[in-house]
Amino acid sequence: MQITPAEVAETMAMVTKQNLDIRTITLGLNLRGCTHEDVDVVASKVYDRMTSAAERLVPTAEQLEREFGIPIVNKRISVTPIAEVAAATSAHDLSPIALAMDRAAKEVGVDFVGGFSALVQKGASAADHKLMDSIPEALSCTDFVCSSVNLGSTRAGINMDAAFKMAGIIKRCAELTADRECIGAGKLVVFCNAVEDNPFMAGAFHGSGEADEVINVGVSGPGVVRAVLADMPKDADLTEISEAIKATAFKITRAGELMAREASRRLGYAQGILDLSLAPTPARGDSVANILEEIGVGTCGGPGTTAALALLNDAVKKGGVMASSSVGGLSGAFIPVSEDAGMIEAAEAGALSIEKLEAMTCVCSVGLDMIAVPGDTSVETILGIIADECAIGMINNKTTAVRLIPAIGKKPGDTLNFGGLLGYAPVMPVNQHAGSVFAQRGGRIPAPLNSLKN
To answer: What PANTHER family would the database entry show (predicted)?
Structure first.
């Protein structure tokens, strides 16, 4: 489908007035050729592979920004899950690989690297356990490395032993980086039904069905959608609202399609997916919460919020999929509290609770994201939150995730200030009635009946 001059002009207006941007160009890299029994050799191979393959990524993205006038906020790399790359390694500590990934990121100038990851939805190998055990040290001693662990799927059920282990690791990551606003936990996410072509952090990794090098693009534009809805008549019905969002999502996705084509062509790498996710920023007006309020909800978190979010997420997907044959990743609406000015305000006002956010994750793209909880929150409570969120994903055959940040030494009403796109997070109260028996049972929650598709 040709990109027309009219589309270009309209896109420029979205950029200058409504915060449209390409949120990320992410280079997915296959690292399976980096295996070795010596962890230092693996680290050296990983560094060489990343720096050679990504050498032109940032200059190319910057050239595209200048030529087309569309900001590209982040340039990122995702790699093969390191637990797979390190399967032959005898070392128990895999943090040297994370350090090599971090050095490579700094060398080529990217913002984040994802893939210090393991997929343990049905069981964990020795390498998976080594990877999980290495996460706290890896995230505390690096700046740009992100980690993810897939704990469940509709096909496999939920690995509760791994979930409990990861609850403790989340707490440990926060403790090791308590002097840096507990950012270690902010670079770690656990999933159910993780996708293998996600360009967004902290959950990006390069899946096993992918080519050696792939360009995946994430495009965002909550401010554009909000502006369109703000101009609609107050008596417009919800069908009209949905149609307006669909049309806007189509236009936003076309901008991303153009950039994805050009980036993959110039770099000589395969064009992967285009992820149209309304990813908010702390900038005023660039908020998913504000979109829900434009739809008609009084304050985000109030009654009607989940229904409005369902409408938004569905319309975004329908509009986006008509604009590109390669829509993938997560594609929908994100609800990261610390990164959304409207959600921060709603949380501070008491309108938005963790329980309401959990309900919202039933209909949005991912899950509980960038939520600060009191530093004394127990591991058993964190496990319960993870299990609840994974159950939503497993039963509904959708991706769900948890990125909680235990705010060490802080209580509800305090804040963690990350700066930049990560914004700041008000510490939200948590239901502390999890008990201890459920967390300690372990085992696997079986896959649901609807997993039997064959």
So the answer is: UPF0210 PROTEIN MJ1665 (PTHR37560:SF1), UPF0210 PROTEIN SPR0218 (PTHR37560)
